[in-house]
Amino acid sequence: SYTYGSLISGMCKEKRLKEASEMFERMKEMGVAPTVVNYNSLIDGYCNKGDLERAFSYKDEMIKQGIVTTVSTYNLLIHALFMEGKMVEADPLVKEMKDKGIVLDEITYNILINGYCRCGNAKKAFDLHDEMLSKGIHPSRVTYTSLIYVLSKQKRMKEADNLFEKIIGKGVPPDIIMFNALIDGYCANGNMQRAFSLLKEMDDIKVSPDEVTYNTLMRGHCREGRVEEACKLLDEMKRRGIKPDHISYNTLISGYSRRGDMKDAFRVRDEMLGIGFNPT
RNA sequence: AACUCGUUCC
């Protein structure tokens, strides 16, 4: 039966790792053979918890048990290391994959590319992008979002926009996350006009904006001191049925605070507390 | 059937 596997992965997703690992041990005691997915679920859980030591010990255990690691196993561990900025420590894992004949897949490349984008290494990210193309692996929206992100952070908006258009030209319709990333780039670089023209484009192609879209636009206005405009956006999102989250309110609070309008800042904070969110 | 990647505040 698939019962144990489902229970273990379910508990790992809910971060109930103690229960998951106990159930895993019980399962083995009962003579049920553990699978690679059981291990991957646990590795994922402990990686998310930040306990990489435990995650790696599960990887060692599976190898000892003669259970074949998959590309997912490595993707999980490489991702966890990259999120902690430990790029170098991931090198031996990539080497190990190659030694075992495990082929890097689209997700592996996306993890590597995103990692380098997050730390501002656009060169390395684009090199990996070229490498995946040369291996016949097609970049996805996930890949492009990372590349747009790093270009935006480096204020290379022309290139970010060109890339965005190029992707559309390839017949890949942008999704909401790609839009949000590009909108954020324009907001962070003070081009609210283009940011709003992208919002309009989203509406045109029926990609519904979400709270991230609006939070991003609100923040763009706030950083220019136009908190009133940001408030109008808060109303607009409510009107459109998009629920503001704690970030929406914190954006307004910090917008008012930066301007020294503490009275308004506290007013928004009270409104936020009134609906059960906590300020940060 | 079940495991892995991208966007806003922090």
Explain this structure.
- The protein is mainly α and 280 residues long.
- The chain has helices at 3-13, 17-29, 36-49, 52-64, 71-83, 87-100, 106-118, 122-134, 141-153, 157-169, 176-188, 192-204, 211-222, 227-239, 246-259, 262-274.
- Helix 3 (36-49) packs antiparallel against helix 4.
- The protein is globular and about 65 Å long.
- The mean pLDDT is 97.
- The protein binds one RNA strand of 10 nucleotides through helix 1, helix 3, helix 5, helix 7 and helix 9.
Give a short overview:
The chain is mainly alpha-helical. It is built from 16 helices and no strands. The protein has helices at residues 3-13, 17-29, 36-49, 52-64, 71-83, 87-100, 106-118, 122-134, 141-153, 157-169, 176-188, 192-204, 211-222, 227-239, 246-259, 262-274.
